[in-house]
Amino acid sequence: MPAETIPMLPAPLLEVRDLCVSFPSRGRMIPIVEHVSFTLGERDILGLVGESGSGKSVTAMALMGLIDSPGVQITGSALFRGQELVGLAQKQLLRLRGSEIAMIFQDPMTAFTPVYTIGWQIDEQIRAHERLSRKQARARTVELLADMGVPDPARTADRYPHQLSGGLRQRAMIAMALSCNPSLLIADEPTTALDVTVQAQILDLIRSLRSTYGSSVLLITHDMGVVAETCDTTLVLYSGRVAETGPTDALFAHPGHPYTAALLASIPPLDGPRPHRLPAIAGAPPAPLERPAGCAFAPRCSYAHETCRDAPPPLVPLVPAGQAGQAGQAGQNTGAQSAANIQQQSAQFAACVLPAEGTLLLPRLLEADTAMSSPGGIILGLSDQGIQPMLSSAGEPPL
Amino acid sequence: MTRRSDTAITPDASASASASASASARPLLDVRDVRKTYHLPRGQTLKAVDGISLSVMPGEVLGLVGESGCGKSTLGRCLLRLTDVSSGEILFEGQDITALKERALRPLRQQMQMVFQDSYASLNPRRRIGDLLAEPLRVHPDPDGRKRSRATITARLHELMDLVSLPVSALERYAHEFSGGQRQRINIARALALSPRLVVADEPVSALDVSVQAQIVNLFADLQARLGLTYVFIAHDLAVVRQISTSVAVMYLGAVVELGETDAVLHSPAHPYSAALTAAVPRPVVGAARAAPLGGDIPSPVARPAGCRFHTRCPFVQDRCRVEEPALHVIEPGHSVACHFPLAEG
Question: How does the protein's chain sit in the membrane according to the entry (chain B) (predicted)?
């Protein structure tokens, strides 16, 4: 599959092109991640979302140079501020990791060593990258912990990981990750182990980082709710391949890939009418070795037809509302000029044959005006913008 | 809103909550002031379940929700007497199971089964699925008190596979050959082997991916309708609980803080904790307005706050809440809350 040309943002912080990761097993290579491309701008939050085994963590580990299993094959390119990360020597990676790119993990208990205090570990990280005295480092640590909303930061710094609650440990880990002011923070399921009320606090904190620390965040999660609340851009992975990518609001309002649409539909709603049955997706994602030759989702897809089974469909642009007419033309004529034109204007891409065939999925059914209020002045509802269909389905038979 | 000082939801109220689910007035499960206290070193005590009273009518699905450490799993285990209670009564069809000897309990065990979160850990990896599913049928006699024949058992196994939509060939295979969703189907089949009346499911879908989770939630709902089962469905995911439950009990630090019909509790919560919990769930919708998250952490259950157990995090805390513990009281038929100042109808 060729690399897709996604319109260039001004000076992206991270530009990943055609990243592939394969692991050897019993004499053959198992492709875990195939041709993943994305761009992360300064102060952007990009959500990498997918089910278990979709390759989201492996993608992040490959970017950080953290995959060292023998025989692993990483190809493609990942430019961080113009510097190639794929194949970079460990020595140079060491300089980048922690100071320029930092990572936080799902389980802060195993990310900290249990035998040193939280403060000691953050001090050490600071002193590994900067020439500071112990005292200066500790002052910075305490300040960071305070910034992360840790109560009584000076005393908390003297505590061991097991003495803190899950939420405080995660705050401490974010403090450690931010200690050298990295421009990129990779957060791998940072709230999955946390309770929902604490998750809300940590997501607030992550959202605030771009203004307080100027950090970009690559947020890896399986939770579509977390993505909707946190990320500017969303990349949906399915079985190691990009299924869909685009601005979060557009993608959630009008998913272009049947997998995205089905995944969103299968989440039980918390507001509005309760469906009699959940629209579940039949079957399970394929194992990497059993991935079909064509679209990986085809065996579970209700729109699948012959063209889906030949080769993995390339990422094609979906068209913003105004250009719906042109899209129809492009679909039929595939005129090089109009296609290029659309490519520049669209930011939402789906690896699916439907858009090229002129078949458009319907926008998500959401009750626009069922803004519900609950006690305590909490208003739950949708903004007008959130339900604007991105594609005009006029003239298309409903699917 | 009238306020009464009942310490528990009254039988009348609970019956009306599930009047549609059952014609019988007697609850299948009646929990009365159940406590489970663990004694820790240095004289500390952990009140995992701190005086819970509730009842579940036949055909009802009670969702037990709450964050980690709230005692929902401990309560679930107590309901089946997998854990002995420290005090209180648990009546299963009017019979107190907390006092029964193990031998007398055995016939009742057929009536109540459990499905666990970890579908892999619950299945012996070295035995075939058919063998695992046959075990309860071999251990327990049939309703006439006779040992089941091999042919009866095989026929039942085929029935069970059909119930959970797995091929009969699955019986010949081992747990590792299945995906997480399929393994959970097997666990459900085993729980149903003896045709129980009550199934306690402890986070049965939280280890599954969303696309598979929906299948299993649907399966639970189908089986409930088809077999007239009663569930106690323990989960931290409010959306899943809403999908399956007829009523919901919200737990916080070992106690039920709100209890009522699903839509009442989740859409017009009367307890500030229920409101905060519902509001904190991220919606998969861009632009959904978000409430300011609840501050602080859940206190340690070892050092439970005095007065209202939620007062340390409550945005509406008053002086009275710091000293006097609110009892669970009825605010409208079938809806009880443990709060001095319940939130008004939204």
Answer: Peripheral membrane protein
Residues A327 and A214 both lie in one domain? no
| pTM for the predicted model, two decimal places | 0.84
| pLDDT tens digits along A1-55 | 444 455 554 578 999 999 999 999 888 999 999 999 999 999 999 999 999 889 9
| DSSP secondary structure of A41-80 | -TT-EEEEE--TTSSHHHHHHHHTT----TT-EEEEEEEE
Q: Specify whether A203 is located in the same domain as A261.
A: no
Whether residues A260 and A192 fall in one domain:
no
Residue A289 touches partner B, C-beta closer than 8 Å: no
**What residues in B contact A285, CB-CB < 8 Å?**
209, 211
Same domain, A202 and A60: yes
Distance CA A296, CA B180 (A): 19
Is A382 part of the contact surface with chain B (CB cutoff 8 Å)?
yes
Residue A367 lies in a domain: no
Which residues of chain A lie closer than 8 angstroms to B281, CB-CB? 196, 225, 270
- A212-225 pLDDT, tens digit per residue, is 889 999 999 999 99
β-bridge partners, B202: B234
ipTM of the complex in this document: 0.84
At residue B345, the pLDDT reads 60
Same domain, A191 and A260: no
Task: Tell me the three state secondary structure of residue A158.
Answer: coil
Give pLDDT tens digits for A57-85: 999 999 999 998 899 999 999 999 999 99
Exposure pattern of B23-35 as b/e (b: 16+ CB <10 Å)? eeeebbbbbbebb
CATH number of the domain within which A139 lies: 3.40.50.300
Candidate from B181, B239, B343 with C-beta closest to A269: B239
CB of A273 less than 8 A from some CB of B? no
Burial class (CB in 10 A: 0-12, 13-18, 19+), B213: buried
The helix/strand/coil state of B8 is: coil
Query: Which of A167, A222, A284 lies nearest to residue B179, judging by beta carbons?
Result: A284
Which of A73-77, A346-350, B342-346 has the highest average model confidence (pLDDT)?
A: A73-77
In a domain? residue A223: yes
Q: How many domains are contained in chain A? A: 2
Contact predicate B330/B259, CB 8 Å:
no
Q: Tell me the residue range of the domain where A65 lies.
A: 14-237
